[in-house]
Amino acid sequence: MFRNQYDSDITVWSPQGRIFQIEYAMEAVKQGSACVGLKSKKYSVVTALKRTSNEVVGSYQKKTFKLDDHMGMAIAGLIADARALCKYMRNECLNHKFVYETPMQTGRLVSQVADKSQVHTQRYGRRPYGVGLLVIGYDQTGPHLYETSPSGNYYDYKAIAIGARSQSAKTYLEKNYTEFENLSLDDLIKHGLIALRETLASASDGLNVNNCEIGIVGEDHKFEILQGAKLQPYLDRLGSTAPSSTTDAARMED
After folding, report:
1. What is the 3-state secondary structure (H, E, C) of 114-140?
2. SS in 3 state form for 68-82?
3. pLDDT score of 175 more than 90
4. What is the DSSP letter of 227?
5. Which of 74, 125, 228, 232 is 20 to 30 A distant from 20 in Cα terms?
6. Minimal CA–CA distance to 82: which of 109, 99, 64?
């Protein structure tokens, strides 16, 4: 009823107490291709589904970014907004290392990004960032996995999925997250890929070396992005794992 009247300005609230510009930004995250994050005692992993604009285009959109040797992220939503935040986060990591001569803690960086995102929800002439981030890192306090939202909220997770049809992945993660804590890196990646596969539009679609990538960081393991041929051994391990029987029901919920 009020949408056309109250959705043109970030500083205007509707009579129901809603800010439609923030809701639009969060909808952009929901429509972005899916990303899955999970962590164990020693490692944090993100898996991301890449899209291409059409069949004629030979390349896929980049979904994972390195922030520092001990930190990286995967994104769902507007790529341009993600690149702007990535540049800011890289600069903050460099500045912290220059001033304090130590790597930046993951939680501190995520808190700063959340503050920056929140400013864009209350000042005239700006708009919310239309992108959600899954930030993974490893510092002196162990492995971390955070999600940030266009609204300025952020959360610390053991496992989480964002993006299109992410509810299917969340259903899988909720059933299996208790196993993740003591898993090896290879098994953690396997669970991440299985959860990512649950977000595919149909059973006939499959993960391959072109449409997905993996980000890894952990104890004695600098942040690394696996793509192309490096992915094949992990994808081969999925051959014997059937898709979850709850996938179709979860997709209907999404």
Report:
1. HHHHHHCCCCCCCCCCCEEEEEEEEEC
2. ECCEEEEEEECHHHH
3. yes
4. -
5. 74
6. 64
Enumerate the domain spans of the chain: 28-50+60-253
Rounded to whole angstroms, how far apart are CA atoms 68 and 121? 27
Give the C-alpha separation, 20 to 6, whole Å. Answer: 7
Give the angle 5-10-16 at the CA atoms, nearest 5°.
Answer: 55
CA–CA separation, 228 and 163 (whole Å): 22
pTM, entire model: 0.89
- DSSP category for residue 29: H
Q: Six-digit token pair at 192?
A: 């991440």
Residues forming beta bridges with residue 36, ordered by sequence position = 47, 161
pLDDT tens for each residue of 61-78:
889 999 999 999 999 999
Count of alpha carbons within 13 angstroms of residue 153, beta-carbon side: 5
- Determine the angle formed by the axes of helices 79-100 and 106-119, rounding to 10 degrees: 130
* CATH number assigned to the domain covering 28-50+60-253: 3.60.20.10
**Quick one: tokens of 145?**
């996995």
